[in-house]
Amino acid sequence: MDFEGRLIRLGTRKRKNGSLEYEQIPMMDELCEVLQAHQEESEGLWVFQQPTGRRKGQPYSENRGFPQDLCRLAGGKAFGCHAIRHLTASILAQHNVPMIAIQQILRHKKLSTTERYVRGLEPVRVHLQVLSGGFLKNKPTAEPTKEKELKAV
Q: Which helix (H) or strand (E) holds 21?
């Protein structure tokens, strides 16, 4: 992470030959501040490091299970990082962000991949209004809607 330049370097192996490819993407100011504070509190050089075990103090090399573990601790339904990518695409599309910008944010090589993310979420667009304004503004007021009721809509 480059806090001064407000950039995150992300790698992927999702390329034709499977080689590791890195790209730098900009960080929002709030994210940069939170991550910088987190790093200052940690004992080592890394923002995210293994807290225990034989790799203690070394950087995380993968995030398998991390979001799911947090969801279980919070008592919610488990989801992974890929679901966050889909949600990001949907929120951006809902706010009329151009598809090419969404493609760049998600780091897709092909626009058609980005279009699949957004098109696949069109049926739930109306339900995303719940996310508008953040969690504290939109506290649950009733029991969750049952799946059968959703299918009827």
A: strand 21-26
- The domain limits of the chain are 1-60, 62-139
Looking at residue 151, its amino acid is K
- Is the whole model's pTM more than 0.70, yes or no? no
Positive or negative torsion for Cα 10, 13, 14, 19: positive
Q: Are 109 and 23 in contact (CB under 8 A)?
A: no
| List of residues 6+ apart from 131 with CB closer than 8 A | 91, 138
Give CA–CA dist 45/101, Å, rounded: 33
- Residues 150 and 123: beta-carbon distance below 8 Å: no
DSSP count for the chain of H helices, then E strands? 6, 2
pLDDT tens for 5-29 read: 999 888 888 777 888 888 888 999 9
| Structure letter (DSSP) for residue 45 | S
The amino acid that residue 9 corresponds to is: R
